[in-house]
Amino acid sequence: MQIDTLSRRLIDRFQHGMPLCAEPYRAMADALECSEDDVLACLERLESSGGLSRIGPVFEHSRAGASTLVALAVPEVQLERVAELINCYAEVNHNYLREHHYNLWFVLTGPDRAHIDALLVAIEAQTGLIPLDLPMQTAYRIDLGFPIGEAP
C-alpha cells in the first residue's frame, strides 16, 4: 500500500489523539492546513485500502467495565468457523490467529466480570473448546505509535 503525503502527516499527527471538540475533522484539517473534505477522503482511502482499522477512543478498561485476554486451542479444520463465531460477539476485539497450540487469541470486554464469565461459558458451549482466561493483573503503559515520517 502506497501512503501519500497527507496520509503520512495525518497518521503522524493524530494517531495518539484526535481533537476533543464538536468538529474534530475540521480541527484536524486546520492543523494539517487542508480542507475537512481532504481529511475525510484521506481517512476513507486508508480504510478502504486496509491501512486504517479504526478511529475512536481507547478507554481505561478498568474504569469502563471489565476485560480479559482469551485463548482457544482450535483444530485447524474448525478455525474459520470458530473465528467467525467469535467475531459475532460485540464484546470481542483484537481477534488474532497465532502460531501456537492456543492459536486463536482475542480480548473480551463487558460491563463487569460476571458478564465476561457468562461470555466464556457461552463460547465454550458454542465451540466445544475450553477458553483460556487470562485477565490482566498489571498494565505496563507503552506508547503504541508508529511514526510514518516522510516517504523514502
TrEMBL record:
The text of the family note is: Belongs to the Ahb/Nir family.
> Please, which domain of life does this record's source organism belong to?
Bacteria
- What are the protein's UniProt keywords? DNA-binding, Lyase
Task: State the protein's name.
Answer: siroheme decarboxylase
Q: Which reaction does it catalyse?
A: siroheme + 2 H(+) = 12,18-didecarboxysiroheme + 2 CO2
InterPro entries, A to Z: AsnC_trans_reg2 (IPR040523), HTH-Siroheme_Decarb (IPR050684), NirdL-like_HTH (IPR053953)
* Enzyme Commission no: 4.1.1.111
Instruction: Note the subunit structure.
Output: Probably forms a complex composed of NirD, NirL, NirG and NirH. All proteins are required for the total conversion of siroheme to didecarboxysiroheme.
Which of the seven top EC classes does this enzyme belong to? lyase
Q: In which pathway does it act?
A: Porphyrin-containing compound metabolism
This chain's source organism reads Stutzerimonas xanthomarina
Q: Which GO-annotated molecular functions does the record name?
A: DNA binding
